Prior knowledge:
By secondary structure, the protein is an alpha+beta fold. The protein has helices at residues 22-31, 85-96, and strands spanning 8-10, 17-18, 39-44, 50-51, 67-70, 102-110.
Amino acid sequence: MQEAHGDYLVFNDDDDIFTSFALRSIRFAVDRQPEPMPHLFRFLTHYGIRAWVYPRVEQGNVGGHCLVAPNIPSRLGQWTCRYEGDFDFVSETVNKWDGRVVWRPEVIAVARPGQVAA
Length: 118
């Protein structure tokens, strides 16, 4: 993140993929936002569940690959070492924006494509 020069940061895990329309959806959303603000898009879990399910920052409901955040280092959270470290990053980032977030219905990422949980 320290080397990023763009206006917004987008995150994805190495075993996940962006949808073919992810960048178009992200650009559409941030271009229409009058001021910089974090956006939480949806992603498809390997369980076939579309998350976020409801517009609340809660563990299990949001993850790192649904966050599109303004590239303002002082307003970004930190990842922790626990399994839910991406949630910690999202939660802290949103808190640094006083809880303000733009909830977007578009699915921009697929978690572990090709792997279906039993």
